[in-house]
């Protein structure tokens, strides 16, 4: 079980997507869940991703600026999951 940083809900790891910050400060989506670095979990849901973007949750959790394109990539993943 992991905690979604946007909603605070505990969910199985499979229902969440991991966003990781490397030692170099690069932020990426960790599809394997195994990349090294500081990780934060988000529920793979459009509303939750929009909430995280609005509240700047990932920037606070990972202590780094988040590029808006990361949120676009997350939303694309949500759309892929539904099809």
Set out the fold topology.
Layout: E1 2-3, E2 10-11, E3 16-21, E4 27-30, E5 38-43, H1 46-55, H2 57-62, H3 68-82
Antiparallel strand pairs: 1-2, 3-4, 3-5
Helix pairs in contact: 1-3
Outline the structure in words.
The protein has a single domain (2-82), classed as YlxR-like (Hypothetical Cytosolic Protein, Chain: A, 2-Layer Sandwich). It is globular, with a radius of gyration of 12 Å. It contains three helices and five strands. It has helices spanning 46-55, 57-62, 68-82; strands spanning 2-3, 10-11, 16-21, 27-30, 38-43. By secondary structure, the chain is α+β, with helices and mostly antiparallel strands. A hairpin with a 6-residue loop joins strand 1 and strand 2. The strands form two sheets. The chain has a three-stranded antiparallel sheet. Pfam families: YlxR.
Distance N to C terminus: 26 Å
Structural class: alpha+beta
User: What spatial form do the alpha-carbon principal axes imply?
Assistant: globular
Number of strands: 5
In percent, how much strand structure appears in the residues? 15-25%
Average pLDDT for all residues: 95
Provide the number of structural domains: 1
What's the CATH H-level homologous superfamily? YlxR-like
Largest sheet: 3 strands, antiparallel
Along the chain, the helix and strand elements come as: EEEEEHHH
Highest CATH level, the class: Alpha Beta
**pLDDT below 50 for ≥5 consecutive residues: which ranges?**
none
- The helix content is 25-40%
Protein name: YlxR family protein
Pfam family, one: YlxR
Domain YlxR: 2-74
């Amino acid at each position: 079980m992991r905690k979604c940083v946007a909603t605070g809900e505990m969910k199985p790891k499979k229902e969440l997507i991991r966003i990781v910050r490397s030692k170099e400060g690069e932020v990426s989506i960790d599809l394997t869940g195994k990349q090294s670095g500081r990780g934060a979990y988000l529920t793979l849901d459009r509303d939750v991703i929009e909430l995280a973007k609005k509240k700047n949750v990932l920037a606070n959790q990972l202590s780094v600026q988040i590029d808006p394109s990361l949120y676009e990539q997350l939303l694309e993943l949500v759309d892929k999951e539904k099809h």
